[in-house]
């Protein structure tokens, strides 16, 4: 009887190990499927930054603002990746609130001072985005790092962007949140959803539901119409659900601090 129990336990452990190995392979494949989306987002930001530099050099304030907005959208869709994998470039491109360079230094001049005197900052932004774009083909995309980034971004949407956000001067914080949530949605469905569904369909459904709720909350005409309490609560629920999913995916529990993993 004892030998049968031991054998049964060993069989369960072997099956569990097999599931984890299969999940690991699926997650690695999902991370690679995420790469083209990431490359496209950063390429869009780079194209917008180049147009911004050109329009600013021509003293075209409306054109420079439009190009800044275009560049910003591509960047915000990519934030699942940026803080954890390239923190130095992230700080140079998107430092906030103490922005000495990058998007927000330019934003203050274009939208705050109505000035196109951004040549040095725009050139720096183009160079940093170009540097990042050149790294994306070969950089190692780990499922752990992407889950960490997804969790951090979900928390950021509810906690640091809900009160006016980081793009207050340009008035585009609502668009920031929408693009962030689009990035979260794509990363989750591309990398994690199928693997989680095989081991816990209800938890997968919960994550998807909270993402859809966030999308609905920010589908308003302007930021004052966003229900901030609902946004924060749903964001926190998504964070908790993703943290709960980590063990079932064979990954470490994500933290809210940026770290390379």
From TrEMBL:
Classification via InterPro entries: EfeM/EfeO_iron_uptake, Imelysin-like, Imelysin-like_EfeO/Algp7, Imelysin_sf
Residues annotated as signal peptide: 1-21
Source superkingdom: Bacteria
Domain Imelysin-like: 32-99, 101-246
Main location: other
Localisation: Cell envelope
Annotated GO CC locations: cell envelope
This protein's UniProt keywords: Lipoprotein, Signal
This protein's record includes keyword Signal: yes
Family from the record: Belongs to the EfeM/EfeO family.
This protein's name: EfeM/EfeO family lipoprotein
Protein source organism: Bradyrhizobium elkanii
